Amino acid sequence: MKGSQVAIQNVEKRFGDFQALKNVSLDIKKGEFYSLLGPSGCGKTTLLRIIAGFEDPTAGAVLLDGRDVVPIAANKRPVNTVFQTYALFPHLTVFENVAFPLRLRKLPGAEVSAKVEQFLELVKLPKEGKKLPAQLSGGQKQRVAIARALINEPSVLLLDEPLSALDAKLRQHMLIELDLIHDHIGITFIYVTHDQQEALSVSDRVAVMNEGEVVQVGTPFEIYESPAHPFVAHFIGETNYLSGTVTEVFRDKHVRVDFPDIGTLIVYEDKPLKAGDKVKVTVRPEKIRISLDKPASLAENMNLLQGRVDELIYSGFQSKFFVRVNEKAQFRVFRQHVKFYMDEKAISWKDEVYIWWNDNDGYVVEVGE
Amino acid sequence: MTGAVQSVLGKIKGIMNTGNKPTGKFSLSVFLVVLVFLYLPLAILILNSFNASKSMSWEGFSLRWYNELFFSPSWVSLWKTFGNSAVAALTSATAATVVGTLGAIGLYWYRFRAKKAIQIAAFMPMLIPEIIIGVSLAMLFASTKLPMSLFTVILAHTTFNIPFVLLVVMARLESFDFMIIEAAYDLGATEYQALSKVILPAVFPGIIAAFLIAVTLSLDDFVVAFFVAGPGGSTLPVYLESRLKLGIPPVINALSVVIIAGTVVLAFLSRNIVKYMFHSNK
Asked: Tell me, what's the pLDDT at A24?
């Protein structure tokens, strides 16, 4: 595995009175595609800039393969950055942009040409070398920026919201390509984004950040399915969020929880709980089934509720239903349209419906007072 | 005749078609009126420079005034002052461009105390009437015992050119993506390499524009040079002013045409120089 292992140790960053990073520690493995995910202002870009060397941490250390790089200037670190605005040099051609780091090292012309060709090939721009950045589309500029950042063969590639300026379709496409490039060259990628979809789809691991702190580190699956913090549950995907009191611990890792506005439901839990604990529970909308008819037979591990469709949003591949169970409780339910829409038994606005879900799909995110 | 007029109108419309189409006749008429207002005086001047007569009445085509301008001994000192003007313009514009460009980059790039105050102080000379700049510089030179000469003119012109260079280069920096500086560092450039290989080439069109404006302002200046020019250091405007006290000889028409032609050639050249430098900067 190529690349470097990166260790962030107790890093703090203060800008005047504002604390951008609060005691952040992360371990990034060699060759990992690692995402820093969070809303704007959460400190993820500041952390990336500290790794790149554009900012010094107020306290703490950044280790590359065990060596503290904080005293090393940005232009001497074996890391390169793909910038959000691409930051291509407007006066240089695509070829010269990519060749820039090699020219600085005064490599012989033939070697430069061969290498630039190779990296333009890698980002699928073999024929655009003579163009100026102003003549390229957004996606092409992005590719040039990636080639330029990779040509020095850094041990870590930093990507600062690289796809945020592209339109949705192109973003999907570039994401797949980025993943292929990562697989191909195998170095460590640290990817900053506020888009949970991007982070989930390509990362080996994700660090979710909020207000200068790392709230959870895990694989995309862990982050999505077992959020460790209410913030993570809210920020990643859509969810239903309920507060209640544990009434009984029963079976293996399951509890009965009384929700004041809804009733008693069975919830999965992997933390030790006892009766009387106040808990916050999330249930993902896509895990809830919805139907006009009461399901004929229901396994005992299902939670069943009745409600009325408040609102319904049709979006082609799926519909979102907002189902009101009572005055205070509303559930979001997603239903995939696996059949031709007209063939499904259509549920429409104000219909009385049944919703149910497996007790494993309710997950306790927080135990509190 | 009407055909020719129509084709000229068509061409003007063509030029104006880069943006939204002018829909009515009104905008076109205003455009033509402004053109006439701007260029009719120049046309009369150019025409008169080829007039055989000393007066305004046309007496046939002649190169008499050009001949006098270039070869008459009574106008030799004009060429000396023209040389002074050229030297002052090029030197002061170069100096002002260097100082102003570095200043603009510094003012833009670095965060420091009193930045706003320094910025205002730097732009102030642009707002102060030239006569005050002229008088104050003359007093400064006198008090420092610096003899008035062409050198003092160059110093004075450099001084009043700096704010203009600052302004033009800073305007260019407005549209400048500062991330490219970080990108340069990120890719291994030293501070000097970032300046010489990225920042300067990227702002180069702005620097050229600033330099040309500085040259023009210096050539154009009469008031400041009037106060600070010493013996043998007179610039063309100062010299002309002294010659024109007794009316305007037709030779001046010829000189004006030469200057206009020179300006057009310079403007055209600079455009191509910028284009060339922009595309072949390897």
From this structure: 95
Do the domain assignments include residue A1?
Answer: no
Test the B interface: residue of A51, A94, A100, A158 with most B CBs within 10 Å: A100
Please report the ipTM that was assigned to this predicted complex. 0.82
Cβ neighbours of residue B138 closer than 8 Å, sequence gap 6 or more = B148, B227, B228
Choose from A104, A105, A141, A160 for mutation: most chain B CBs within 10 A.
A104
Does residue A252 lie in a domain region? yes
Domain boundary among A200, A235, A270: A235
Asked if A54 and B198 come within 8 Å (Cβ–Cβ), the reply is no
Q: The domain containing residue A272 runs over which residues? A: 240-368
pLDDT tens-digit profile of A210-234? 999 999 999 999 999 889 888 999 8
Helices A168-185 and A109-122, interaxial angle, to 10°?
130
Could you say which of B185, B193, B204 has the minimum Cβ distance to residue A74? B185
Nearest to A26 by CA among A38, A40, A8, A41: A8
Answer yes or no: do A104 and A224 share one domain.
Answer: yes
- The structural domains of chain B, ordered by start, are 2-70 (no CATH), 74-279 (1.10.3720.10)
User: For the ranges A314-323, B16-25, B162-171, which has the lowest average pLDDT?
Assistant: B16-25
Task: Find the closest chain B residue to A53 by CA distance.
Answer: B186
pTM of the entire predicted model: 0.76
How far does B212 lie from chain A, in Å, by closest CA?
21
Say how far residue A297 (Cα) sits from the centre of its chain.
38
